Automatic annotation (TrEMBL):
A Pfam family reported for this protein in Swiss-Prot or TrEMBL: Phage_TAC_6
Designated name of the protein: Phage tail assembly chaperone
InterPro entries per UniProt: GTA_rcc01693, Phage_TAC_6
Amino acid sequence: MPEPDADRPFPWAAAMGAGFGLLRLAPDAFWRMTPRELAAAVSALLPPAPDHLSRPDLSALMKRFPDPS
């Protein structure tokens, strides 16, 4: 789940979809979880996030795929 944004409401539909559909939680277990606990449980099922792109790698990509002028 993405990081919370103060300008957007909490994504209840996505949270319930992940909790009930992906994790197959019982309703009482889902509603007892904090959003942080739910995010941790969901992230355990997702592939690991890639490392950040290094500056040399970014430069190489920019040379390989230059923006059109």
